[in-house]
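User: Show me a protein chain along with its predicted structure.
Assistant: Here is one chain, sequence first, then structure tokens.
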Amino acid sequence: MTKFTYEDVGLKDYKDCWDYQESILEEIQATKKATGAPTDLNRFLLVEHPHVYTLGKSGDEHNLLVHDDFLKKIEATYYKINRGGDITYHGPGQLVGYPIIDLENYHIGVREYIEKMEDAIIATIAHYGLKGGRKEGATGVWLDSDIPAKARKICAIGVRVSRYVTMHGFALNVNTDMRYFSYINPCGFISYGVTSIERELGRKIDMNEVKEIVKEKFDAIY
């Protein structure tokens, strides 16, 4: 199976990166249409964003708890976007991954694709001694997911699939400024917390190291 073609985008404006994803998706779809067959063209963007909140197409705007003036004060932007899921935060110190691939080439459906993504992130944080898992009724990767009073999300996942081609992806909290989550109900949840690798271990984490581990774990499950 063809491995992913990774591109480290660095720190990039959310809207610019969204447009970039769309252009890659259109290229892959055009190739599929021209050949009449699944394509092994694939791209996997790794990026950090300036402070931004994004609301999925089925999300509730009330889960953003602040107004425009306050967003300006904290130097954050806000977008309604075309992925699934509710509201989430992206910012410096958070590793965001956008696989743009043809699921037909990998012979999997959307649910299995999301589960594989969760598996790769669970394996990534296991490298740091953290035991991640799934939470019933929710996507993403959680710590202590089976203990309601302690459950906290370390990685959010939201995707869009168009003609079997994916975009958007995961957001793994590495050295994230967790204060920014206090201005939303993350992913629409009121009762559960969020965390980061830094918060769990009590030390800064080398982002380049995390990127290499993510690549290794994603390649291993496909």
